[in-house]
Amino acid sequence: MSMSYLKRIEKGLLSRKKSVLEDKALFHSIRNLPTLPFVTTKVMETMNNPRSSASDLSKIISSDESLAAKVLRLVNSAYYGFPKPITTISHAVTILGFNTLRTIVVGISVSGLFPGKSEEGIFSRKSLWLHNLGTAVGAKTLARKIGRPDSEEMFLAGLLHDVGKIILEEYVHEEFMNAVENSHSQKIPLFMAEQKILGAHHGEVGKYLADHWKLPAILSEAIRWHHELENTKEFQEVAAIVHTANHLARTLKIGNSGDFSPLTIHPAAASMLHHYNINPEDLTDEIKWGVKECKAFLEMGQESEKDPKTTS
Question: In order of start, what are the domains of the chain with their CATH numbers?
Fold first, then answer.
């Protein structure tokens, strides 16, 4: 990108009041972001088709040898805890069900599209992905405690809740890092620092990407509102679940989200926890165990070598 967002403002090419998402010249590239792999898209289409069968899903996943091998490695990890090895994709679909397989396939695919970078410091993509994983495990754990039937969707919402930060760091790097620095020096929420500098924050950008990928509304809306629970009613509980899981991941120092504001929980999330009589501290051991056993999720999404062939 030849000219930064701030320099475009300085030269009068862009109004300071204008959101980064409204700057078509600057953010034209977002329309050319990596799309989800073909197999991942087909998995979601198959799941959305009520006439699809387990056999249809297993054939699609098995058509990509590398993906199929990664799926089998993950479903045989301690996180899923099956007493006997699962050796075929068709067996995995039967045992785990459609929703869990979708979570695994999309999670591996997305983490592979935006791999962690090696540099460390005040913000690194590698640390952010670890934070995202902590949020994913926390969201699934909390959803189960509440008794929601969509705990797998909540895992995926947690894993993707900060994907907008990766887009901002990639495409408007200077301005995003200024926002991180502001959060660090002024101890303000990162989404507020982003809003001040860019006119939009990572929740908005993340929803843009989720819609671009045609992910279900429950995911895109949880991504959009996880910092602004007061502005959504229909999706407030799912946003509150992700918000609380994000809070727990920060509390437990799982990775680094780039947000250096004091640890506080939104009143709507606190109200939800009170309603279900849940103490977040009771979830910490399960979250720490889950992250430890589920790190392969990120590693498999970001490895480049070809995995061994699997059968369907």
Answer: 5-302 (1.10.3210.10)
